[in-house]
Amino acid sequence: MIKIWIVGLLRAAWIAGTLPILIASLPFSKLTSFHGLLMGFAKRGKIMQASSSKFSVPQKFFSHFYVVAVIWTTLLAVTTWYYAYKTAPMLSDSLLYPRVASHLTGDSRSFSMSRFHSTPFRDRYKIWQSVFLLLLMELQVLRRLYEALYVFQYSNAARMHILGYLTGLFFYTAAPLSLCCNWALDTSNFAVNQVLKFIVRGKDGMRDVEFDWSGFVTPLLKLGWCEWIGALVFVWGWIHQYRCHAILGSLREQKEESDEYLIPYGDWFEIVSSPHYLAEIVIYAGILIASGCADLTIWLLFLFVVANLVFVAAETHRWYLRKFEDYPSKRRAVIPFVY
């Protein structure tokens, strides 16, 4: 029952976040004021006017998102990975029989045939798939934290709306959880039980823990083609986002010297105004593909990412067009050759 509530709340949250953006994006004059209100919450940095900074925080607070994300994603990844290792082994028969024989001949490592057969293979596969998705998310948030600390040099004048800040904190809490929400309750219960056992029995009373490292890694290698294709798409977007962020970071250094905004060039900036947003969409498309495209929660997460980034990218594109008379006309906002 609690598991259903966790999944249901996450889905409701993604829908609640996406619907206002979709409504504000409709081309109706009656929605102009609503569009302006929502855009006021989403604006940050160069597209946020100084007069709009009453309810705002420094844009350098972006690093808070990634500190939270790294801590939270690491916790979820480690606990889910260990839970998968202990309760959802994906052993082939060739590996299963030696493990049974080893146990029968006195191997101290615990092995339960009933545990192995009580969890359907499909569920065991899905648990390891969640581990895989969390590891992809870990790569993303670690890189974003590095960029926030060492690539971007936010000026003291750069601001973002307080609601945008709170939305970012929510996103980097809910997004990793959405990747493993079907097992979050079981994982947390398992982790709590392990901690309680340690407290009750003490260190000396606990059985010596022997890690079978192949048991941690081999199941990930047994995942199917969709996980690895998704990982390739993820890495493609991941690399291009880093390149685009490096370009923006170098422009900000030049801006401090010249006190003027510059038109970015290079990589995907040649085709869109916000290639770092395009790359983010590609990254989450890779995660969606790696999930097998069968989980509604991850679909809703992806739709929120697309709606939010396209919405902000459109305003960024308009800002570039107003700011620079010689802005490249062939560039689109965020979707190459389309929008």
Number of helices: 12
Please identify the structural class as seen in this structure.
Answer: mainly alpha
The average pLDDT score comes to 85
Helix content: 55-70%
Question: What separation lies between the terminal Cα atoms?
Answer: 43 Å
Counted up, domains total: 1
Main sheet properties: 2 strands, antiparallel
Strand arrangement, major sheet: 1-2
Instruction: Sum up the overall morphology in one term.
Output: elongated
Secondary-structure element string? HHEHHHHEHHHHHH
Q: Please, what is the oligomeric state?
A: single chain
Radius of gyration (CA) equals 23 Å
Tell how many strands the DSSP assignment holds. Answer: 2
- Uncertain runs are 92-117
> What fraction of the residues are assigned to beta strands by DSSP?
under 5%
Could you describe the 3D structure shown?
The chain is mainly α and 339 residues long. It has one domain. It is 69% helix and 2% strand. It contains twelve helices and two strands; from the N terminus they run ααβααααβαααααα. It has helices spanning 2-24, 32-42, 62-87, 93-104, 113-118, 121-151, 162-178, 184-205, 213-221, 225-258, 275-290, 296-323; strands at 56-58, 159-161. The chain has a two-stranded antiparallel ribbon. α1 runs parallel beside α12 (296-323) and α11 (275-290) runs antiparallel to α12. The longest helix is centred in the C-terminal third of the chain and has 34 residues, at 225-258. The model is unreliable at 92-117 (pLDDT under 50).
